[in-house]
Amino acid sequence: MSQSDKTVSASQTMGFQAEVKQLLHLMIHSLYSNKEIFLRELVSNASDACDKLRFEALDNPDLFEGDTDLRIRVEFDQEQRTITISDNGIGMSHEEVINNLGTIARSGTKEFFSNLTGDKQKDAQLIGQFGVGFYSSFIVAEHVSVFTRRAGLPETDAVLWESDGQGEFSVTKVEKADRGTAVTLKLREEEDEFLSGWKLREVLRRYSDHISLPVQMLKEEWNDEKSEMVVTTEWEAINQASALWTRPRQEISDDQYKDFYKHISHDYEDPLAWTHNKVEGRSEYTQLLFIPGRAPLDLYDREMRRGVKLYVKRVFIMDDAEQLLPAYLRFVRGVIDSSDLPLNVSREILQESRDVRSIREGSTKRVLSLIESITEDTEKYANFWSQFGAVLKEGVGEDISNQQRIASLLRFASTHNDSSVQNVSLADYIGRMKEGQDKIYYVTAESWEAAKNSPHLEVFRKKGIEVILMSDRVDEWMMSFLREFDGKSFVSVAKGGLDLENMADEDEKKHREEIAEQFKPVIDRLNKSLDGQVKEVRVTSRLVDSPSCVVVDEHELSPHLVRMLQSAGQDVPDMKPVLEINPEHALVQRIKDESDSEFDDWAQLLLDQALLAEGANLKDPANFVKRMNRMLMGS
Ligand code: ADP
Q: Which of 53, 100, 313 has the most ligand 1 atoms within 8 A of CB, as the residue to mutate?
């Protein structure tokens, strides 16, 4: 930077506003672990200054002074131990310099200072919420100078502001040929790491890749003679200099969207779909959100880093803000750029901000519509579902306000096509319901095979009533939240007393009642012989081919869920099931007249085989085998 030494008038020394002193002191001591933010703040100020110039020049194009190529430049000087961030934006007048860089004029300043406690950790958090801006230079610099001229003012009306951050600053009227601002930091002894082109580029890329202005540094080349990198005189942009999401949709090609996705997600494959919108209203923000083609390896880790980057006014803020989307949409990648949030927004603020809440609600709805639009392409949706379906299911329990919308996106295997492919929607199911049927029937099991072969399905198969087959780990949990869809309630075929009465004809009902009556003595005997192991024995209306099955009451945890919880180390008490027997089955017919000792064996066998069919582990498998062999030999 060719800094003019031409002093126009003597310098003036002034004291910082008391609050600035406090802020400087606090900041230097509390933001030390995060010191590279000074670059973000200064580049962001430079970018704002260019935005302001652009805006003012709308009415007064002369402000451009013939130079409309707005840019930000970053230079360093190893000998002088300085870094200079310069822009050709709006610049500052003498008065503006004093006001802007000597006081804090921001709203909320009073509140901020009255909240300071003197406790370093608490105050450090507060400072993050408040936003440190320009003053963050003093985290790494022992001396800062600001050399600036407001666009449109004469060259002799430039200002040099200088301070060592100790309580005073000086302002001197100087000459400056080009408009705009150059901030020069003289680094403290221990901050030499920033005096490297490599380090500066690395930090700048992270924070400014999508600033719409070019951030330039002097090119470095390998010099064979010196055997080192040398700085040339040619400027090169080190960011992409284009905030893709700020451009109108119609000006962005699919390939550009895809490239951008790959860039932010570090994915090699194309995204499955994306949505790009500028939202206006109470909260203003732009969202560009992608659904990847493939699930990341850590998808099931609910703590995995979220993939939506938060920008505020095109300045990158953070890339793992979990408040922007609910956990069940953690596979979404992209950018949300808010116009309302403060630049130095902290995680604490994100948690409480109303703006963030409305961004989260709005973005959730957008992603759900995006997923809805994928359903129109069956093959594409099948791909989506196989990758992300099980995660989306978490939304049924997590996001009650969108529960029905999420439910309509669910896909299941069912007895309709008896395939393990999950492609049946609840709407498909309802469309195929039998006359008189007003419930959605489902079964949960450890695997699709176990679900498909569950004895609980027998009567449904016989009557041609479709049953949804669920075997994802999350299904049981999900179904504890999903009570109904489209006005139809869900019923587990393994729970409670099945009420298929309004689908049974008169003869059938009568027949069942007669048999139950006839079987009462057998039921009594079974109850006695299995006392302590089961809650009750009763005649079933579920079974056709099997002699017996176990069921639980409607509001009890299913045996499958109990096993899942137990295997996860949770302390769940064993529950006694209800044993239902099929009076039409030959085996059951046969035990009617058995003697008491034989009868006990048969009773135990009916219970054990029902438990096995349902996927449970027997408490005493060796005894089961022994008993069965004895009975086989005897028959
Ligand atoms: P904030 O940017 O949050 O307002 P800062 O302390 O970073 O707070 O800056 C204070 C003010 O100084 C800015 O609002 C702006 O008016 C002015 N300023 C800072 N940097 C520049 C710059 N590079 N060009 C023009 N004005 C600037």
A: 100
How many Å apart are CA 8 and CA 434, to the nearest integer? Answer: 93
pLDDT at 2 > cutoff 50: no
Report the DSSP pairing between strands 468-470 and 439-444.
parallel
Q: Is the CB of 159 under 6 A from ligand 1?
A: no
Instruction: Identify whether residues 25 and 128 lie together within a single domain.
Output: yes
Residue at which a domain ends, from 206, 239, 272: 239
Q: How far is the CA of 134 from the centre of ligand 1 (A)?
A: 6
End-of-domain residue from the set 183, 213, 239: 239
Give the neighbor-by-neighbor strand order of the sheet with 536-539. Answer: 536-539, 578-581, 548-551
- Indicate whether 300 and 327 sit together in one domain: yes
Q: What is the mean pLDDT of residues 22-32?
A: 78
Residue-wise pLDDT tens digits, 113-140: 777 777 776 776 666 556 568 988 999 9
* Judgement on whether residues 523 and 482 belong to the same structural domain of the protein: no
Q: Nearest Cα to 336, choosing from 345, 52, 200?
A: 345
- Both 481 and 540 in a single domain? no
Residue nearest atom 9 of ligand 1, based on CA coordinates: 134
Domain residues for 112? 3-239
CATH value at residue 304: 3.30.230.80
For position 503, what pLDDT does the model report?
Answer: 66
Give pTM, 2 decimals.
0.65
Closest atom, ligand 1, to C-alpha of 183: 23
**Mean pLDDT computed over every residue of the chain:** 87
Shared-domain flag, residues 205 and 119: yes
pLDDT digits (tens, 9 = 90+) for 540-584: 888 989 999 999 888 788 887 888 788 878 888 777 899 999 998
Ligand 1 close to Cβ of residue 86 (< 6 A): no
Could you tell me if residue 394 is inside a domain? no
How much distance in Å is there from the Cα of 290 to the middle of ligand 1? 34
* Closest atom of ligand 1 relative to the 91 alpha carbon: 25
- 179 and 107: one domain? yes
3-state secondary structure 197-239: HHHHHHHHHHHHCCCCCCEEEEEEEEECCCCEEEEEEEEEECC
Under the banding of pLDDT at 50, 70 and 90, the label for residue 371 is very high
What is the amino acid identity at position 477?
Answer: W
Residues 461 and 360 grouped into a single domain: no
Going by DSSP bridges, is the β-strand pair 307-312/315-318 parallel, antiparallel, or unpaired?
antiparallel
Per the structure, how many domains does the chain have?
4
Q: Which residue out of 1, 37, 45, 73 has the highest number of ligand 1 atoms within 8 Å of its CB and is therefore the one to mutate?
A: 45
Q: Are residues 119 and 172 in the same domain?
A: yes
